[in-house]
Amino acid sequence: MPTNKLLRPLAGMAIAASLLMPAASTAASKYPSMPIRFVIGFSPGGSTDIIGRILAKKMSDILGQPIVVENRAGADSLIATQFVAQAQNDGYTLLVASGSHSINPTLYPDSKVDPVKDFAPIGLIGSSPNFLVVHPSVPAKSAAELIALAKADPGKYNSATSASTTFLATELFKKMAGINTTSIPYKGAGPATLALLAGEVQYSITSLTGMLTHVQSGKARALAVTGAQRSPLAPDVPTINEESVPGYVASTWYGMFAPAGTSADILRRLSDSLHEAMDDPEVRKQLEGQGMQLKKDTPEEFSDFVSKDTAKWAQVIRDSNAQAAR
User: Could you give the angle at which helices 264-279 and 47-63 cross, rounded to 10 degrees?
Assistant: First the structure.
């Protein structure tokens, strides 16, 4: 009898625990049961915004819930990043991020946001190379010729930069090419493009899709692309890596994150739906039209990628004293 009395409370606890476990499992299995937010750290119309909206439409169909795109622009996407890092980890507030995600923690150390620890990776979407372009008044017809001009006349040439991605892509190019030029920051890709077209600066590393029409019209000259491979949108333009600076790669990547602590079941559902959306022929066509080179990976592979990318740009920032420059 005494033994039975001791066992009764334990049996009650076991029953209570067994009742709670199915509830948690059921909550995850019913996901999603309400609208989802895609938070984007840039203004409407930019590359990250366009990519997010393309995916939101298709993933909404797949998941059976509306997906609302919410632009929280400012501080080079840090406002959006901080917002999602502090959001409920229930799978209803997600971040569509660009390469700034792994750059900003070193460039802006006061932000106190860790690109790996504060987020649960859903998946890499892909990457988009930038153009290395010059104003038509610059006599260079290739990246190698631009480098030769800059070396022959140190300090003469200026470049336009905007987001941290293009700013550091330029700093990496300068370092690896061994040239001394001045990076002039502009508040957005639009003003930076206008500065190049007006001849206020001599060259720029900038969005391929944003500059393509100006290259085609002759208002700017494309010397190279910054990706590991040539872009299908400009197949005749060589990469910097193959043409002049071996090992140089500085594409802008795009990916999707949830807040840290999001359940594995929800992350798997989101990752599967992201990949399903990327497999859709119309979605693929639209994303590739933005200059994207698509790449599907697992959340674990994406986490490893972000860790390595963060370390890469942290070294560039330290080597170039870029933090002080910004």
Answer: 110
- Taking only the tens place, the pLDDT of each residue in 162-206 is 778 888 999 999 999 999 999 998 877 788 899 999 999 999 999
pLDDT at 109: 86
What is the DSSP track for 33-100?
A: -S-EEEEESS-TTSHHHHHHHHHHHHHHHHHTS-EEEEE---GGGHHHHHHHHTS-SSSSEEEEEETH
CA distances from residue 12 to 15, 16, 20, 311 in whole angstroms, order as listed: 5, 6, 13, 51
Cα(179)–Cα(160) distance, integer angstroms: 16
Tell me the pTM.
0.81
Q: What is the rounded distance in angstroms from the CA atom of residue 268 to the CA atom of residue 117?
A: 18
Question: What contacts 24+ positions apart, CB below 8 Å, involve 79-88?
Answer: 79/41, 80/39, 80/40, 80/41, 81/41, 81/111, 81/113, 82/111, 82/113, 83/39, 84/39, 84/119, 84/257, 84/258, 84/259, 85/113, 85/118, 85/119, 85/259, 85/260, 86/259, 87/259, 88/259
Query: Cβ(230)–Cβ(237) under 8 Å?
Result: yes
Beta bridge partners of 183: 159
Q: Identify the residue with better confidence: 9 or 244.
A: 244
Q: How far apart are CA 5 and CA 84, in angstroms?
A: 50
Whether 278 contacts 296, CB under 8 Å: yes
For residue 45, which amino acid is it?
A: G
Cis peptide before 32 (omega within 30 of 0): yes
d(CA 308, CA 224): 25
Q: Is residue 87 within 8 Å of residue 294, measured between CB atoms?
A: no
Are the CB atoms for 131 and 233 separated by under 8 Å? Answer: no
CA distances from 92 to 38, 39, 50 (A): 8, 10, 20
- Bridge partners of 134, per DSSP, are 203, 221
Report the phi/psi class of residue 142: left, alpha or beta, with left for phi > 0 and alpha for psi in -120 to 50: beta
